[in-house]
Hints:
- The protein is an alpha+beta fold.
- The protein is built from 6 helices and 16 strands.
- Helices cover 39% and strands 27% of the residues.
- The two termini are 21 Å apart.
- The mean pLDDT is 83.
Amino acid sequence: MPFRLRLVRTLRRWHARIGFAALVFFMLIAVTGVALNHGAALGLDSRQVHSKWLARWYGVRHDQPRQAYRTASHLLVAANGRWLLDGSAVGEKMPYPLGLVEIGDMIVVGGESSLHVYRADGALVDRLDSSALPRVPLKAIGAGEGELVVQTAVGPFTSADVLSWRAGAPKVVSWSTPTPLPEADREAYAQRLAPGISLQRMLLDLHSGRFLGRLGPLFFDLVALFLTILALSGAWMFLAPRLRR
Length: 245
């Protein structure tokens, strides 16, 4: 068999093998590349993927919730910068809560330098930062005579509408304090409160190979080399007969 014919057959055989082996990675690079090009429109940076194994893979620390804040009809559990209010996630990258208070038809969650106000159905109404609070950091929050009370380093402040404040507190204040979570509930809440990884970061890491660790980019470089060989061998098999003619 002539050498040229053997070479062509060998190239065709390896062209098919390399093409089939690289198909999965080629599709991965293509799909992630298209998604990243439209990342802003798709809101990739604001979307989080929550999984305990994914957090371990990225080396993100995840804590198990051990306590909860309760009112007569509401429950707040927090861990890893996430809040579950009555079983529904209500935020990402949230401060650790100091308490949960129910005032009329409002639910107020307090942090050291912010207050989050929700409706009874869990919808966020307003977020008050340090500029809208009488003093920061807050030490505790509670309720007294139908009003919200916050404790600060210079004493308590009271508000009926969570907007205007006056110094002092009612004679009787029910301060919000945490209660321990039953051991059986901790793992279930830990699953739901797993830290989030940005979807955009995941796609970037998949596109570059960094998702596979330190050797991932080198592996993707090897795949790129295979794709180059694939393109060159295909071009040669296409052009060689035409050049001979």
